[in-house]
Design goal:
Length: 79
């Protein structure tokens, strides 16, 4: 079962995450491109996952995390 995306923006911080990233930062452009690409492949993800069972981590979140790891040269998932 494919999990839902629930970002919980205020779970650990009272400061809006969007306000921490400058408007001119390149990650904002990358995010808009990635949002479009993930919207296109979302139906494929729906077909791959079963309709019953325990919900998984949404594949979109895993892709986003991997790309951030690559862009910011984070060597491991623990970092």
């Amino acid at each position: 079962m494919r999990g839902d995306i629930n970002p919980q923006p205020t779970m650990f911080s009272y400061v809006d995450l969007e306000s921490r990233i400058p408007e001119s930062h390149p990650i904002r452009k990358i995010r808009s491109i990635l949002d479009e690409a993930l919207d296109e492949i979302a139906p494929w993800f729906d077909e791959m996952y079963a309709s019953t069972g325990r919900p998984s981590i949404p594949p979109e979140m895993l892709i986003r995390a991997s790309l951030l790891q690559i862009f910011f040269t984070i060597r491991s998932e623990r970092q």
